Amino acid sequence: MARFGCRGPASRPCPAPLATYTAAVERYLTGAGIAKSSARIYRISLTTWGWMLAGEPAPTGPAQRGAKPPVFPVAAIDDPALPEVLAELAAARADEMDADTVNRELSIARKAIGWWQRQGWIEGDPTIGIERRPAPPDRTKALAENQIAALWRLDVGLREKTQWKMLYESAARADEVLCLNVEDLYPQDKRGRITAKGGATEWIHWQSGTAQLLPRLIARRTRGPLFLTDRKAPAGTPTLDVCPETGRARLSYRRAEEIFEENTRLLANPLASPDDIEDLDGWTLHRLRHSALTHDAEDGTSTPMLLARSRHASVRSLERYARPGVDSVARHVAERDPAARRRR
User: CA-CA distance, 286 to 291, in Å (whole number)?
Assistant: First the structure.
């Protein structure tokens, strides 16, 4: 599909572009007050939308890794032919992705477009007319206790073991944990200082499982990103995302999600054949947070403590965790099974 640019000679002259789309994204992330913990997700979503705003389908799956986004002036977003093509591309992507992801990406794109409009870089919003997709609630997000136990038995590296344990034990968001630096940790207190959603600085707390793994993961490092890639950071990586002692880069949310999803495919599909693993979907990192808070609620944790642990601002936000999980329902049904009562 052709890439969009300036209008033809019959239209009004195009102003000189103020910035490329990529530069506009970076200006938005640094100038609009986006929290460091959210900037990664925003950058991934806006990179995805960069393909579609250039009139091209966004790559998905393995093709997304290493794909170079198109280069075009941000002013090209005002091309009058773009909204129609964009609607088709967005609809096609919505058919391939889950509704929550599509809706989040659309929301982020609209926030950025509004900011660019206020800078005077563009005039219109080509996403007008693209509707959010209905997202039916998923009642199976909380993993069962035996699923959590099976997760800990997986043969994975120290980095993954530590990261997954910390996510479950702290009930923190994945992007918050991935933004942790070694100097943010207080191992003796089993807690760490994170930049939360909205930019606030807050504490997360973990348990013995994480505490036992952290010293091995940190080794002798005293500063820099906690969770690192396996290779040296490529040229141009922001200094804050490079370990000054090893030269390796901070592990990205996208890669962490991919690793978790790949390793949990058979756990998520216990009746499937290992030969079909490439066609299966695994779990998302967010399910560790959801599971931890659901299990807390099942164990009778008070509302004030759930609010503090989840760091939600509203009690209404806790409703998603108040629903008993599969283990609690199974125990309830088993305890009321007439046949089981007769056996006892």
Answer: 9
pLDDT, one tens digit for every residue, the chain (344 residues): 445 544 444 444 444 445 799 999 999 999 988 877 678 888 888 999 999 999 999 887 666 666 778 899 999 999 999 999 999 999 888 888 878 788 889 999 999 999 999 999 999 999 998 988 876 655 557 898 899 999 999 999 999 999 999 999 999 999 999 999 999 999 999 999 998 877 789 999 999 999 999 999 999 999 999 999 999 999 988 999 999 999 999 999 989 999 999 999 999 998 887 777 777 889 999 999 999 999 998 888 888 898 889 888 788 777 777 766 677 777 777 777 777 655 55
CA-nearest of 256, 313, 264 to 291 is: 264
Cα–Cα dist 90/68, whole Å: 19
Burial state string for 27-58 with b = 16 or more CB within 10 A and e = fewer than 16: bbbeebebbebbbbbbbbbbbbbbbbbbbbeb
Dihedral of the CA atoms 187, 192, 193, 196 (nearest 10)? 170
- Is the sign of the CA dihedral 144, 149, 153, 159 positive or negative? positive
**Whether the model pTM is above 0.85:** no
Paired strand residues for 228: 250
